[in-house]
Every structure is written in C-alpha cells, then in structure tokens.
Design a protein that fits this description.
- It holds the Pfam family Glycos_transf_2.
- The protein is of the alpha/beta class and about 350 residues long.
- It has 2 domains: about 5-170, Spore Coat Polysaccharide Biosynthesis Protein SpsA, Chain A; about 175-355, Tetratricopeptide repeat domain (Serine Threonine Protein Phosphatase 5, Tetratricopeptide repeat), CATH 1.25.40.10.
- It has 14 helices and 11 strands.
- The longest helix has 17 residues, at about 230-245.
- The relative contact order is 0.08.
Length: about 350
C-alpha cells in the first residue's frame, strides 16, 4: 500500500476546510497545510485534524506557495486539494481502493474535477487534473496565478472525482486580486508565458475589459505554444468578447476557428446554432444542433454536459416548431424534458403542447 501526503495552501477558509479535511482524513497519512495569511479560524481547524500547519508569507505567487507545501511532504505520493474541494463517499471509497492497489510504477494519477452542477445537483461541467503525484519525482508548480503542476511519465486516468463546493462559501476572495497580479507583471515588464497571456485575458474578460481581452487572447494564440484545451476555450471566450462589443461576424468566426484545433465540440455546435437561430435561419441552426448531439464523447476534454443533452433538444424543438414541423418539435421536446424536466423553457413547451391536444 502506498502512503500519501495531503498538501494544501489556504487563506481564510474556515467555512469549508473542515469538510475538505474530513473527506480525506482516513485516506491520507499526513496533512501539510500552508497558510498564506488567514485572519479567521482556518489554522485552528487544520490543527484539529492533526495537520502540520506552516506559515508562508504571501508573495503574489501561487506556484511558490504550492511548491513550499510540496517541499514539506514526506510520504510516497502527494495529493493536492483546495479548501473548497471534497471527495464524496463513492469517490472516497475509490481512492481508498486505489491506495491499496496502485502500482508503484505510476508517476501520477489524474482524476475528474466536478466544478459545475445543475439545480438538481447533477454534474454539468467536468475535466481532468493530475491530483496524485509521486513525491520522489519532484514535480513543480508554475505560474503566479492559475498555477499548473507540470507532470510527466506514467499517468493513470482514474475513475475518481474531486468535487468543488465553492457554492457553500458565503465569503469571497479578495476582489480583483488576480487581475492586479497580472497588471503588476505587465507594468514591470516581466515576461508572460503563453499560459499567463491566456489567464490575463480571462481576467480582463471577467472584469468587462473586452477589447483588451481580445488583444491578449490573440497574442496567446499567436504564440502557438498552447495547450489544445486552452486554444479551444480561447475561441469560445473570444466569441464572448466580440459579442459583447457588437462584432457578431467576428464572434462567429471565433467559434468556427475552434474546428482548427480539434473535431467540433458540442458547445461550439450549439453556439453556432444559437447564432443562426437568432437570425431566424432555423434550418441551418438545426444542422448545428444535430451535430452537437452526434459529437463523440471526449473524456480528456472540458465537458459541458448540457450541450450534448437537453440544450440542443430544446433548441431543435423551437426550430422545428418555427418551421411548422410539430412532430419533430414534440419529439425533441420529450427528449429535452427527459433530461431536464424542470427547466423553465421545457415547462413552457410542455404547456404549449398540452394546449394543442
């Protein structure tokens, strides 16, 4: 059986930390909790779980804090989590089993990250992250903001999910912190990696600076040194920015550009369908919504499940109804209702069809 060090960085996480640590306390063999300046009960909560609590002076750099935490691990493997992450019972049992059976030749284990949920609590946004890594290989974190763990070797994709529970928190982080870090880097003339350019553009977009975001998204793509998933997401975010400033044709071009990087993803097919539907080009929109339903599953990609389930069916119902094909409209209504019976648009359609019978 392998041994595991849990390594975390925290600040003012008293509302969620106990849930996180409770979910793994009987799985990990030690807890390394690095505090970057809490003023609440975070450290006391960590101590109550017999964690090794270390202080780290915040230097505007997340990777340095995470590497500091990793440097104090003593077990064979390191598991990293954020304070608002938990393992649900099914995934706890899977991780316990993995701990008993993991082949020591495995250098890292990737797990699903469940980050989005519908009103019924069903996962609608997930992707993979390397969560469990061999300590002896000294894997390092990189990036001042939106840091990433550079991993290589024999990587095992496990059917285990870490669940993000940010919705449980009533307090929020320091507003604008990430954007200020990037603006400070820019003002000092520090080199930005392609990843920095991508996340800087994201921060600008999130703060309503759409024109500047467009500039840095293009700089990011022009480096041609990008992870394919970030390239594809950039096409989506560029479209958002172009729509926000009224450049609809540029937005559509950005959506289509995503096809240069991989086979069409369901969310892009749906957004192209949306673009055409708004223009009352219902037959053309139908083509794209149907492509979303036909798209193959891709476990390694960022997955937004609604774009392959209820959403395209909902839009197909509308388009066929507008074209006068009530049979097809009803078929797609029933399909959307099977996936999401409580959605307001689905309930509205249910009323419309009920009135026709």
């Amino acid at each position: 059986m392998i041994t595991i060090s849990l390594c975390m960085i925290v600040k003012n996480e008293e509302e969620v930390l106990a849930d996180c640590l409770s979910s793994v306390q009987d799985i990990v063999d030690e807890m390394i909790i690095v505090d970057t300046g809490s003023t609440d009960q975070t450290k006391e909560i960590a101590h109550s779980f017999s964690a090794k609590v270390l202080d780290f002076e915040w230097v505007q750099h997340f990777a340095k804090a995470r590497n500091f935490a990793f440097s104090h691990a003593a077990k064979e493997y390191i598991l990293w989590l954020d304070a608002d992450d938990v393992l649900l019972e099914e995934d706890r049992q899977k991780l316990l089993q993995l701990k008993k059976t993991l082949d020591p030749s495995v250098d890292a284990v990737s797990m699903f990250y469940h980050v989005g949920f519908d009103e019924d609590g069903q996962v609608n946004f997930k992707y993979r992250r390397n969560r469990l890594v061999k300590r002896s290989l000294n894997f390092q974190w990189y990036g001042a903001v939106h840091e990433f763990l550079q991993v290589y070797g024999n990587i095992l994709p496990a059917d285990i999910a870490v669940t993000h529970q940010k919705r449980k928190k009533t307090t929020v982080g320091e507003p604008g912190r990430n954007l200020r870090i990037y603006e400070d880097m820019l003002a000092k003339g520090e080199d930005m990696t392609p990843r920095d350019l991508f996340y800087f553009a994201n921060e600008l977009r999130d703060n309503g600076q759409h024109v500047r975001a467009i500039r840095f998204y293009h700089e990011f793509l022009n480096t041609k040194q990008c992870w394919i998933e970030d390239e594809i997401r950039t096409c989506q975010y560029l479209a958002d920015c172009y729509y926000a400033v009224g450049f609809e044709e540029a937005a559509l071009s950005s959506l289509l550009r995503s096809f240069l990087y991989d086979q069409p993803r369901p969310e892009f097919c749906c957004r192209i369908g949306d673009h055409l539907k708004i223009q009352n080009k219902h037959q053309a929109a139908i083509f794209w919504y149907e492509q979303a339903l036909k798209a193959p599953e891709n476990e390694t990609a960022f997955t937004l499940t609604q774009y392959k389930t209820w959403y395209p069916h909902l839009q197909l119902c509308y388009c066929y109804y507008q074209l006068g094909d009530l049979g097809q409209a009803k078929t797609h209504h029933l399909a959307s209702s099977a996936h999401y019976p409580t959605h307001p648009s689905v309930l509205y359609n249910e009323k419309i069809f009920a009135e026709q019978t």
